[in-house]
Amino acid sequence: MSGFQNDKYKFSTKSPSSVTLDDAIEKRAEEIESLKEELLTYKILIKDLAHEYPSYSIRNKILNIAYFIIEDVELFDYLSETKKFPINRLLKRTPVEREFLQAWREYIVAYVVIFSNPNYKYLQEYIQVVEAINILGVDEISQIMQVSEHRGLILNKGFKSAIILTSKGEFIKVKSGKDNKIGEDIISTEGISIKKYKLQISILLSLIIIILAIGAFNYRAIDKTIVIDATSAITLEVNKFNRIIDSYSKTEKGTNMLNELKVDNSVIDISIKSILEYELNNDMIPENGIIITVTGSQLKYDALEKTEEFIEEQKIQVRFNNSGDEHKVSP
Fold this sequence. Notes:
By secondary structure, this protein is an alpha+beta fold. The chain has 13 helices and 12 strands. It has helices at 22-40, 46-49, 56-71, 73-82, 87-93, 98-103, 105-116, 121-127, 138-144, 198-220, 252-261, 268-281, 305-314, and strands spanning 9-11, 129-131, 149-157, 161-166, 171-175, 185-189, 224-229, 233-238, 244-249, 290-296, 318-322, 325-328. Strand 4 (161-166) and strand 5 form a beta hairpin. Helix 3 crosses helix 7 and helix 12 (268-281) runs parallel beside helix 13.
């Protein structure tokens, strides 16, 4: 472990020299195609690298792990020959945590491939690795802050987007024009990536799930029970939103009525009016009238407005007991 230093090298924060000659772009493009082919032997795609967002300090740590592998003959040969990431060997020789190595395996391998191969001269010159200084300067501190624009070499090209490699070792998806080429050095704003905001999205989804769960629980919770006692007693289980969550009757006529009216999940005012209308049309109202009894939370005075209008219009005799408050609805 004594041979490993996690702060030996760092990515330079200075901007690379701008070279826009067609010859330079073509040579970069050749190197980029070779790089993509070599990364494929490790089962790594450029687009996969662009899905991860290591911070400047994490990238520097990844960089030092990559150089440790390059400078260790046994580790480098093992990786190059087997195409397998030497995680167990790194755990024995470095103090780096397993979780970190697993999380950034693809980035580490990509850096090893880029910096170990002399055929990637143009890419290595563009990235610019320097020996680290322990004190953070203004440039280093600025890397911690999010920037609105990114400069880098185009590695992959889409219709309106591109994946670039910045001089600070980032693989970033940015917006691009149709005339941009592989190997071109561009400055652009970052493209939309859901994965970058996966933490925020997961938190938001968790909150939505919790809210929905609370809403579902409250919706299914019985707040009051209403019994409409006519020739067939009808029982309605009602939530605090005054919606029927369950309805039943012990008689066949009452059950048939509920099956026909389908009152579940409906507002009690409309449903009770429909029940009374059905009972009136099917001679289910006894001579001494109907008793409506509420147990649990009281109904508000205007909760059965349409029902009371119907009762008055049809002159139905109804006694109403609202959780102990009893009165007649009909005149």
